[in-house]
Amino acid sequence: MPKKAFPILLILVGAALVLGALLSWFDNLTAAQPVGLGKWVFDVLQFLLGAAGTGLGAWLNFGRKDKTPPASSVVNAGDQNQTAVGEGARNVQTGGGTYVEHAEKVEIHAPSKDEPSETIGFIPPFKGETYVHRGKIEEDVRAFLKNGGTGAIVGLHAPGGLGKTELAKHAAEDLKGEFEGVLWMDVGDKMPHQLVGEMLMKCGVQSPPNAAYEQQKNDLQHILKERRLLIVFDDVREAALRGLSDYLPPRPCSALITSRIQQIGGVHRTFPLDRLTEEQARELLEAALGEDAVRAEAQAAAKLAERCAFNPLALEIAARRIRQWQGIENPIARYFERAQARFRELKMEGDPRWNMEFVFDLSYNDLSPADQRRFRALAVFAPTGFSPAAAAHVWEMDESGAEEVLSRFINLSLVKIVPGKFLRYRLHDLLDEYANEKLKEDEKEEREAHTALAEWLVALFDEHYAEDRTTAPEVGLEFDNLAKTCEWALENRKGTLLAALATTPRNWLFNYFRQMNDWLRWLEGSLEIGVDDTNVEGKRLKANVRKAIGDVQQFRKETDAALASYDEALKLFRQVGAKLGEANVRKAIGDVQQFRKETDAALASYDEALKLFREIGAKLGEANVRKAIGDVQQFRKETDAALVSYNEALKLFREIGDKLGEANVLQAIGDVQQFRDDRDAALVSYNEALKLFREIGDKLGEANVLLEMSRFELRRGEFENAKTIFETIVSMRRSMSDLFSEGRDYYYFALTLIEMDKKKEARPYALKAKTCFEQVGEKFLIEYAEKLIAVCEE
């Protein structure tokens, strides 16, 4: 440039700055198209400055009649080619690219081979090294996007780590040929206005700095109407949902939305992405570690998949960790042991993308402080689930409020419904462990949450003390929560609380749950830790622990130990004057003596119990003792006396309206009548008992009666009838998950066949009895079954 021209250019630039500022101010007031002097200055300066003044030219773009016409925008020339269309349209170079002045529309063309694009058509690279096809849901998502017509809006929801993004990437890659292009949007914490601006930019359109948001939305919708794009909105969160309609595309575009949020308005079809199947998990591990490596440790690999809850991200992390141990022996088994012990082992150091805790933090951090606390508290429940009433108690709120929170958590893919008859919830897989890690960060909060659940369980089992799973099935679902809370109390040395937890559900633990090893450990643990017996209630609680220990020992046929425990309980009940407790122990002592065939001693103990029950007016206790006396008399073959005792018990049960007790006595009367070979009378009694059990919904009692009826048919020589009835019984036991009773049924059916000298037919039933008892885990029951098998093989 000539030296003399340089000062002239500086003067022109300075004048342009001053004049441009004045005219820009005037333009903002009038919003009018530049005319006259303003237009002349604009054109001259634009010509003089040329490319060297591109930034200034953009700033001097002051007074357009229509500031933001339908496609008035800046097209990023490096991203997309563009053509201005319409009368008076012209392309003007600016610092940000090419400005299209008052065009009716802008046609955006695909970039040439020499212009690679990272906007339209860009799909993020796959994160995992291995991708496993997700089966039907993947095909359904693709089919709906492909065949659902233009404008299909598809949602894919799941908790973190289940592979939503990876599925979306593969779907987009496979479907890109069905559309003009793919527009991938990483949403995350972005707000609607940020997404609108980013989408405009990725479409090659940059709004001027002073463009209003309403006009930006209109521009975006106008552009999207001109093209058939597949738009993927990945990881949509709460912030972006507040203006979802601002950026959802119109026809002919289609959209795929991935989110941890289930219910999203405007979505035509949603698909829940579940965890991997066993086969898919094995395929992922084989692809990552090699088929030979997985085959060599097949059992450990299966355990690892289960420990990772079949979560693809967790399994991918595990595979990466295992590969670091190449060369050592049994790497899969070794990593499994570490991962089994600590949830926080599911990570790769230094990379948050491969860290399950970081992935779950994204959902947790979106919660309000109150909801974060509620989420943490759910860690006290077992993975099998909890009722809304239990959550309400732990959260210290009413049940309707708790259900609102749980509904919110379901929508955020934190909690899910447990299938079944009753409304129950549970945290999603691995989130329960994550919540537990969070809860343990505050010792006081953890203690309060566990204590609240313990109090709720004690109250629940106290209310339903005399019932069972058939009359109060919802209570029967709480064993896992009871067990987990007992373990917490044991570990944290809460002796008195543990004693209450282990004794209040006595009837449930003895008659239904039957986890005798755990129950005994809790009972003995409470005594070892110490039960506060400085008051009457504490002494009574301690006596109940001693009696419950005796009950376990009686069940195990450890009769000497049982009698010793009952004597300890008896002393404690006498100390506090608890005659009801004393009477119950007297009856329990009589039951042990009856089993030992010490029938005279048993009758004496029952008489002592009978006096106490009568003294305090406990007719239920009196009725139970009357029946027990009848059982002894029946054993002694004093059938007339037995029938008298049973009828006295029947009268008492009917007097107090106890249909369960009445049904049990009618069954016992049928047993006596069958023994006396009074078969017609026996069938009448059994059918009356059956009617009552069915009336009150007691499937346990119903199955017990059917067992006696099947044995009755065997003795009549009606083997096929007996077998048909027995198959019904087994089906009922399995529906109740009652392995102990199922094993006992097989045992007695086999025993009856042996009595009829049908040992060959009895053997399969004896073997099945052993199988059931092995699963129960009681050694003495297994020994009983083995003795029966030996008799069959003689």
Pick out its properties.
alpha/beta, 62% helix, single chain, 794 residues, five-stranded parallel β-sheet, 8% strand, four-stranded antiparallel β-sheet
What does the radius of gyration come to?
39 Å
Largest sheet report = 5 strands, parallel
Query: Reading side by side through the largest sheet, how are the strands ordered?
Result: 7-9-10-6-11
Measured between the Cα atoms of the first and last residue, the distance is: 119 Å
Tell me the overall shape. elongated
Beta-strand percentage?
Answer: 5-15%
| Helicity range | 55-70%
Q: Could you tell me the number of beta strands?
A: 13
Mean pLDDT across residues = 84
Q: Indicate the low-confidence ranges by residue numbers.
A: 21-117
Structural class: alpha/beta
Number of helices in the DSSP assignment: 38
